[in-house]
Amino acid sequence: MIEENQQPEQTSEEQTQGVSAQEVNLSDGLGPIPNINFNRKLRRAMLKQSGYVKLKNRLGYKDWFENVRNNIQNGKQLHTSNTEDVIRHSREFLDKSNESTASFLVERGYSEESVSSIIERNIEIQDKISMKKLKS
Prior knowledge:
By secondary structure, this protein is an all-alpha fold. Helix content is 70%, strand content 0%.
């Protein structure tokens, strides 16, 4: 009797045909890989233990290459959207802090010209800091 999550054994004919990229979800059961520098042998052993190498070998070269290409494109899209979100949030935070700083300085007796020059300088400094953070 076969349980729900187990698949029946493949015959030799099915094994030689391989599996299409649509039938295999390569992200199932892999979990996060820690950000530690492993050598190739250890990385390969980890991938083999998690079943990733078996899935890779079942796919043909064309399907595997297409899957990798799609993963790279999705990763680039996620990266750009996350970067835009970070920039937008930091810009909103900077705008709110500049408004509160401007109102505080006006209450203390600073002129509008000096307040605007202080705020402009603050924006320049924050832009330099945020660009350094994004580059690193």
